[in-house]
Amino acid sequence: MHASSALKCQNHPLDSLMSQIIEDYREFAESGLRGLLVAHRRLPIAGAVSNFEVEALTFVALLGIQDPPRSEAREAIALCHSAGIDVKMITGDHKDTALAIARDLGIVGPALVGTELEQLSDTDLACLVREAAVFARVAPEHKLRIVKALQVQGEVVAMTGDGVNDAPALKGADIGIAMGIAGTDVSKEAAAMILTDDNFSTIVSAVRQGRALYDNISKFVRFQLTTTIAALLTVFIAPLVGLPEPFTPLQILWVAMIMDGPPAVSLVLDAARPGLMRELPRERGAAILTMHRLVHVVIAAAIMMAGTIGVLAYGVQSGDVPYALTLAFTTFVFYQLFNALNVRTENGTAFHDRLFANRMLWVSLVGAATLQALVMYVPAGRELFGMVPLATHDWLLVVGVAGSILLIEEGRKLVVRRMGA
Length: 421
What we know:
Layout: E1 2-3, E2 12-13, H1 18-30, E3 34-40, E4 58-65, H2 71-82, E5 89-90, H3 95-105, E6 111-113, H4 114-119, H5 122-128, E7 134-136, H6 140-152, E8 158-161, H7 167-172, E9 175-179, H8 185-190, E10 193-195, H9 200-240, H10 249-259, H11 261-267, H12 291-316, H13 321-342, H14 359-377, H15 379-385, H16 392-402, H17 404-420
Parallel strand pairs: 5-7, 6-7, 8-9, 9-10
Antiparallel strand pairs: 1-4, 2-4, 3-4
């Protein structure tokens, strides 16, 4: 708390110091302090209250109250800006105080006060709301107007609040965020999210986790869809080129339940990749499977189909059909394992410093490869799946052909990165 050096503890009539009070109050406000004026007047026991006048007060002191923002708030706001998220301050403070605090937090832009908002039509406000960074001396109804104006501009709006009067704005926002500690029950009921620690950086952390989850769901979808399309293409095209049916129904079920299931689920457990919060937000309603991603899925499926059919044709030349089918089926299974590594990054290399960070993924990949070998070498498994044991040179062929999808995609991603550089 700070006191005005020029006015500190002066017992003078309030009206005689008004110009100095206003000047010092403005200095406090520009320094990010909230001003509190202390004055008094002696009143008789009865009868004088009706004659009470502010000008008759005796000045005591002008105090500046500082409520510094949390240190992590500056970093969180900077992270928002790098992620393409605009942060606006809405407060009941004086305009100069709000601008000083906003500047300290890294929120830069012009300010609008409540009286100015009242003079603006909804159309005019919608035109100005993106540029304004601070809204000062606002009333509760102004908050809802700000939310609506931003939504008119196509923005996805998250609004924070803790009071009863914040409820309409919390309800009207796309994501209303109430304070769990300082918030009222009404604000919590109106909100879609409640912060248990009342910390702005927690919101940014939630955004990061949300982006990571979306990213991992995309990996899951691309991985599963690639397998499905590749299996359909292989089963459909193999007979057309004079080859036997490559998979039995039980083998297809084995791929879907055992070979694909655990790796796909493990992909959802990937940690957020670096740079995720330096990307712009996706468009509202954007599909997970965009045309760009679908094209890459189809290309990857075509590679898997071509490799599997090629290995099947190679095996058929030996005259041993069970051997050929075992070779083709094992190649297709290992395609899935290599593709799980491939889909972890869309345009970045799979051989990054987080390659082994997802332990569950590696457990599922090693487990799937082990199970595939077991059903091949255990007599009961061979009989059940109609397979025969493979020799060492066969395994080298399987790994070499299946690994081609990873090498081809690494080449494509390298070209994309260099073109974008």
